[in-house]
Amino acid sequence: MIKQEAVLAEAFVALADLQPGTATECEYLHQAAATCARALGVDLAATLHASPEGRLHPTAPLPNAAAGLLAAACYDSPAAEAFHTGCAVSPLTLTSLAPRWAAFATTARTAGYRTVPAVPVRHGNQVLGSVLLCTKAASLPEVEVRRAQSLAQAAALGVLARRGLAERAEAIAQLLRTLRNQVLIDQAAGMLAALHGTSPDEAATWLRAHARSHRRPSADIAAHVLAYQALPTGQEEVDASHPEASR
Q1: Nearest-angstrom CA–CA distance, 236 and 224
Q2: From first to last of its 247 residues, what are the pLDDT tens digits of the chain?
Q3: How far is it, in rounded angstroms, from Cα 12 to Cα 76?
Q4: Using CA atoms, how far apart are residues 139 and 230, in angstroms rounded to an integer?
């Protein structure tokens, strides 16, 4: 028992060591499933990831019969039920599976598996997918399913943390783009004000009005002004060679 708990602890450490920038979300979940398989001693642990539309798909391709099993698992299967209900599906033998998921049971039997429970990848009310556990043994103890659920929850936390980092990075990038464009507009307004003997505020109003009337971003108009010391006329394009025009 002590050895088994040590293996489980190592699995949690391994999940924590999967850094946000080292893999895509699907790759992360695939690695999490491999960690789960090693910790629980099952023959196969495969993660099904939910798309934004709520459709399940495998996180990585698998060879031969396992690929067909995962394709079937995306629809009527313990893994699909775990995803849709957010609850673990207890260890089921193929005999008990057949009445509920006949096609999946046939595919699992062909692949050589006898017991196929599943757990959701979830944290709180957010269900990101499910983990299908496949073993050739006649049964799998309930305690192993509970351990799998704990590992799947840790994986869900990892995914949500990664998403939070990505969202913050995008927000910062958007802020930097906005600030850069504003600096560009301010510089162009200052140039127009000096050229026409008006205030920077009035020149900025001209620039933005010109951008609206020509349906172009104000930053593009500003880049043209800095390149040519004048507002663009007609539908001429901003000179792409200007260093600020492509930013």
Answers
A1: 10
A2: 445 555 555 665 666 665 555 667 777 788 888 877 877 888 888 889 898 888 998 887 766 667 788 888 998 899 999 999 999 988 767 777 767 888 888 888 888 888 899 999 998 888 999 999 989 888 888 888 888 888 888 888 878 877 776 677 777 888 888 888 889 999 999 999 999 898 989 999 989 999 998 899 999 999 999 998 888 875 444 443 333 333 3
A3: 30
A4: 79
State how far the Cα of 221 lies from the Cα of 207, in Å rounded to an integer. Answer: 7
pTM: 0.63
Alpha carbons 59 and 129: distance in angstroms, whole number: 10
Single-letter code of the amino acid located at 142: E
Q: Within the chain, which residue ranges are assigned CATH 1.10.10.10?
A: 168-228
Q: Tokens 């001209």 appear where? A: 206
Tokens of 225: 């002004």
The residues of the chain that CATH labels 3.30.450.40 are 2-167
Give the residue among 138, 145, 119 at the shortest CA–CA distance from 39.
145
Correct CATH for 168-228 of 3.30.160.340, 1.10.10.10, 1.20.120.530, 3.10.20.90 = 1.10.10.10
CATH match of 2-167 with 1.10.3290.10: no
Say how far apart CA 65 and CA 106 lie, in whole Å: 11
Query: Hunting for tokens 């009035």 — which residue is that?
Result: 202
